[in-house]
Amino acid sequence: MEIVICKDKAEASRKAADMIAKLVKEKPECVLGLATGSTPVEMYSCLADDVKAGKISFKGVKSWNLDEYYGLPATHDQSYRYFMNANLFDKIDIDKANTHVLNGLAEDWRKECADYESQIKDAGGIDLQVLGIGSDGHIAFNEPGSSLASRTRMVYLTPQTIQDNARFFDKASDVPTSALSMGVGTICEAKKVILLAFGANKADAVQGMVEGGMSQYCTASALQAHNDAWVFCDEEAASKLKLKDFYAWRSEIEMKG
Ligand code: F6R
User: Fold this and answer.
1) Which residues line ligand 1 (CB under 6 A)?
2) What is the pLDDT of residues 166-222, one digit of tens each?
3) Which residue, judged by its Cα, is nearest atom 10 of ligand 1?
4) Domains identified in the chain and CATH numbers
């Protein structure tokens, strides 16, 4: 895992966007795995700026999102489909038919999840997966206790995640308690992974992910076994890392290469 510690969110978002832009230029028909939440918003705006400036095009790109609240229609302003349209897809030249988000209203959720896995496989697998991290160390909605071999399935949100996400809803009781989510195993099959983490409330999760043992109590720790995983974080999110200076030195060399 490479840890790129930046002075702030703006710098980290730009660097992460540059990594995506490089892939899109090299492989215009690449497959992206995308995340929602407040963390990637600035990086998505950097990519939208690049498209506007004519530097890159998403015309041939296909995408699959990590997760969706179960029970919310795509038109709900807190659904992850709505979020993706508003924060990225409506601002770039991607063909919406090539963007995929799990259907939160799927009655047969097992079929929905199995089909999603097949679609990703048929597309050749995910070239680059974008991730945020929950304050409890989750990736997608793989809460503590999720198997590190898990696949796309129905999951339940922990009280911590419901509390963290309540800021987007009128009240905590409006936050759905379940979701459809790619599994940790699904995520780890991506060829490259970029995880973004900002703010002091992510410092424990980042420390656990990077320096803790690999365990289902911090599902992001599964990325320790990935051979091309990059963490872009700000100083606050990196503040509890024991080997912070070493990572900073090492990533500077790796970023040049
Ligand atoms: C979003 C997702 C989640 C978030 C995480 C952090 O698709 O899968 O794992 O990345 O909950 O959320 P924010 O970015 O809002 O702090």
Assistant:
1) 35-39, 66-67, 132-134, 138-141
2) 999 999 999 999 999 999 999 999 999 999 999 999 999 999 999 999 999 999 999
3) 132
4) 2-256 (3.40.50.1360)
What ranges in 132-202 are assigned the alpha helix state H?
A: 159-165, 184-188
Q: What is the DSSP string of 74-126?
A: TTSTTSHHHHHHHHTGGGS---GGGEE---TT-SSHHHHHHHHHHHHHHTT--
Measure 159 CA to ligand 1 centroid, in angstroms.
15
Residue 246 phi, psi dihedral angles, 5° rounding: -65, -45
User: What is the average pLDDT across 50-63?
Assistant: 98
Return the ligand 1 atom nearest residue 132 CA. 10
pLDDT band at 254 (very low <50, low <70, confident <90, very high): confident
Q: Calculate how far, in angstroms, residue 146's C-alpha sits from the geometric centre of ligand 1.
A: 16
Residue-wise pLDDT tens digits, 119-172? 999 999 999 999 999 999 999 999 999 999 999 999 999 999 999 999 999 999
Active-site annotation, residues: 67, 136, 138, 143
CA of residue 223 to ligand 1 center, whole Å? 16
